[in-house]
């Protein structure tokens, strides 16, 4: 049995920040990640981040991961890699961990922070399982982590930030991006990203979706079609695309299976990405001792996830009784930064979702 003060499940931007914050308060922290390396999605992000100095503005994602990992080494944090949290025993508060493929261990923590991130959504259309059809995260992993080009001619499905950023990365890698399509009537991502790919001659077609993909054993092409305001396909508007790769970037869902199993109260909030846990202002769920941060709490930018992780780490450690004397100041500073990140028109969706979650939680 492993005993620890604070367990952090997930070693991405939220989990790393949570572990650092909890350790700074004086807690012994154990961070668990199913991968062979900490960093999560940051490892595959080659673009520079926006925001302020505290949020590592103008720093590339994989460099931020390295910074956080170096900070982790300086603190009392036990790291369990290649280890998956597979279950939670409610009666005694014990987590079941699978190390590798054949070893199971138990872990008991005074507080646990679930920062498991998100999973990609997929689309329903004929032949959507043909080889050559990827999620955007898989394409980023191939290109940015392993140096493998996914194909030669790509159709990007989704004009949010992920779709736009990955399209630009594909162009930088020498891949032809035939078009970016989105069923929504407007581009969902930052227009600065859209302008960069448009300047490279890539058309962005809004109100378009995939009608079908075709090919014998691998993807050889696809037909796209215009949709009306009710997302119904409009006959006669089909366009055939000569492509060998399709990249689907239509959003993420919070990865919350462990929270469901633990018995946390959940609500379906579309603005937050789907089913999300009810939590209080300290990021504690309805199951006492279990906290949540990052995309597992709501789908948002990595910068916000890092600040949320810091808040969850501070609060979890403080709830045990740890305080290095800076808890109140650090918490206040993090809350101000998070509010600033969510201010303005860009943050309206998240603000509305959090308000709805608070209303439905009553």
TrEMBL record:
User: What sections of the protein cross the membrane?
Assistant: none
> Gene3D superfamilies of this UniProt entry?
FAD/NAD(P)-binding domain
The record ties this protein, via InterPro entries, to: FAD/NAD-bd_sf, FAD/NAD-binding_dom, Metab_Enz_Cyan_OpOx_G3PDH
**Which stretches make up the FAD/NAD(P)-binding domain?**
5-309
Q: Which GO terms describe its molecular function?
A: oxidoreductase activity
Q: A Pfam family matched by this chain, by name? A: Pyr_redox_2
Alphabetical keyword list: Oxidoreductase
**Protein name per UniProt:** FAD-dependent oxidoreductase
- What is the organism of origin for this protein? Calorimonas adulescens
Biological classification of the source: Bacteria, Bacillati, Bacillota, Clostridia, Thermoanaerobacterales
């Amino acid at each position: 049995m492993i005993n620890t003060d604070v367990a952090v499940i997930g070693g991405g931007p939220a989990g790393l920040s949570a572990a650092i914050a909890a350790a700074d308060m004086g807690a012994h922290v154990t961070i668990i990640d199913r991968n062979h390396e900490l960093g999560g999605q940051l490892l595959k992000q080659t673009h520079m981040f926006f925001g302020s100095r505290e949020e590592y503005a103008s720093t590339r994602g994989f460099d931020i991961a390295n910074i956080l990992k170096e900070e982790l080494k300086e603190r009392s944090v036990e790291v369990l890699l290649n280890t998956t949290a597979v279950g939670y025993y409610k009666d005694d508060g014990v987590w079941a961990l699978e190390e590798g493929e054949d070893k199971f261990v138990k872990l008991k923590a005074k507080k646990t922070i679930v920062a498991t991130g998100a999973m990609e959504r997929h689309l329903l259309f004929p032949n959507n399982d043909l080889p050559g059809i990827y999620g955007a995260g898989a394409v980023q992993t191939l290109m940015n982590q392993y140096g493998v080009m996914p194909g030669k001619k790509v159709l990007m499905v989704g004009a949010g930030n992920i779709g736009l950023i990955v399209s630009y990365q594909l162009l930088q890698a020498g891949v032809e991006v035939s078009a970016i399509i989105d069923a929504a009537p407007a581009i969902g991502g930052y227009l600065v990203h859209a302008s960069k790919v448009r300047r490279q001659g890539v058309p962005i077609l809004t109100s378009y979706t995939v009608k079908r993909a075709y090919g014998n054993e691998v993807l050889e092409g696809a037909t796209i079609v215009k949709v009306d305001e009710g997302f119904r396909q409009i006959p006669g508007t089909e366009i055939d695309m000569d492509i060998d790769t399709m990249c689907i970037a239509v959003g993420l869902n919070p990865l919350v299976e462990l929270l469901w199993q633990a018995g946390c109260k959940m609500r379906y909030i579309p603005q937050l990405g789907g089913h999300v846990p009810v939590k209080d202002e300290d990021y504690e769920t309805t199951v006492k001792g279990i906290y949540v941060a990052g995309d597992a709490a709501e789908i948002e930018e990595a910068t916000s996830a890092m600040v949320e992780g810091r808040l969850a780490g501070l609060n979890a450690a403080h709830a045990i009784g740890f305080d290095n004397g800076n808890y109140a100041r650090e918490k206040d500073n993090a809350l101000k930064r998070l509010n600033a990140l969510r201010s303005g028109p860009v943050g309206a969706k998240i603000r509305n979702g959090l308000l709805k979650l608070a209303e439905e939680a009553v």
